[in-house]
Amino acid sequence: MKISEKMYCTFLFFVISSVAMPEIIAEEEENKVIVPYGAYSPVCAKTSNCYVPNNIVIDKGDKIIWINGDYAPHTVTSGNLWSGKDGLFESKILNHNDRFEFTFSDFKSGIYPYYCIMHPWMKGLVSIAEQHNFMVSSKSHGFR
Asked: Nearest 5 degrees, angle CA 92-CA 95-CA 99?
């Protein structure tokens, strides 16, 4: 019995997707912010790409994972350059590929700015969405 090339490709697609898809779906549900390569340069501030995404929207109680993809050290420090640290959350110095995880358990809905102490032009926002009394969560339908 000879298998056609089209059938073989279809079979291979289903085998690969059944192995890879659960991992892809699990990663999409995590709230990640990446410090991209080159964020040490003030140029990233012009495009608001010092933290990607620059404004991450989460629900109360969600966890965010920041990952330093740059080769320069960085921090994730709540507050802003003008008023300084506000003490809500702060990472240690993050070297290349280091991670900082923080769960926003006791936070009210609103916007929480953060920045890098070493590179103060690096600014980001955490926006905690208003809670609604809907039966269906925005996460279950991918509305993020």
From this structure: 65
**Contact assessment for residue 124 and residue 79, using Cβ atoms and an 8 Å cutoff:** no
Instruction: Name the residue ranges covered by the structural domains of the chain.
Output: 31-141
Q: In what order do the strands lie in the sheet with 84-90?
A: 55-58, 123-128, 110-115, 77-80, 84-90
pTM greater than 0.90: no
105-136 residue pLDDT tens: 999 999 999 999 999 999 999 999 986 544 34
Correct CATH for 31-141 of 3.30.70.270, 2.60.40.420, 3.40.50.150, 3.40.50.720: 2.60.40.420
In a 13 Å sphere around the CA of 99, the CA atoms on its Cβ side amount to 7
